[in-house]
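Need tokens for this chain, all 289 residues.
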Amino acid sequence: MSGERGFIAALRALATHPAARQLDDDAAVLDVGGDTLVLTHDALLEGVHVRADEDPADIAWKLVAVNLSDLAAKGAAPVGILLSHSLGEGDDRFIAGLSDVLAAYRVALFGGDTVRAAGPRSWSCTAIGRATHTPVPSRSGARPGDAICVTGTLGLAMLGLKADERGSGSAADLAYRRPRPLIEEGRALAPLASAMMDVSDGLLLDASRMARASAVSFHLDSAAIPVADPARPGACMSWGDDYQLLFAIDPDAALPVAARRIGTVAAPDGAMLRVDGVIPDPRAMGFEH
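Here are the structure tokens for all 289 residues:
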């Protein structure tokens, strides 16, 4: 077993409950009584997902937001969260940022845990949502002939890491420090999208994941992909941290949200992903641990 992909593959043997969706989706989908719940869990590690000198208020916002983004990709309405917090300097700022994001998205805090340890700090969050449409969109429903679309502009968070953007309040700065989960857009797309996920690890890598889950090939047109830095399109498409929505949809459907068509779903052709007809280098498609 090697790396993130190998570990997840090994876990699939244990994740046999239907709610787990074979660990091939952004979230678990659980029917409880008359409700369909959507559950997701994500973590941030100091020095990996956030800078070591990050404002803890921004860490709290990002921690919750990236989990709500997974709910958005399932068209779910957020209900509440549980979180784990690593105690240390700036705990009061963490509380302030947490208050901000909970209020912004009307999400309840249900509980969690606190720890303290030497070394880099870490934070984790479980978000619980209620499905607004069933069946809940998955990564695995893309069909040959579907249009591939994405919301927003890719690469803004990458630009937000630049020293001259930091703390400026620019679109790039906020995209990195305080990403905005597209809850309403996800709800609007849920009845129409044949497959949907959020872009967290890079458009190219996440597109290949959706193609693999759907057992199809994705053909992307690089000229159609909206990037924040036209001088570095490859970096914008592989950086990640954008939290836009990537979805497949009937090409004749009217889009209910602002989005760009960036490609077409094709029948399996020996490659999960082709960009301008070329298979990308798998080592340069996005972020993997």
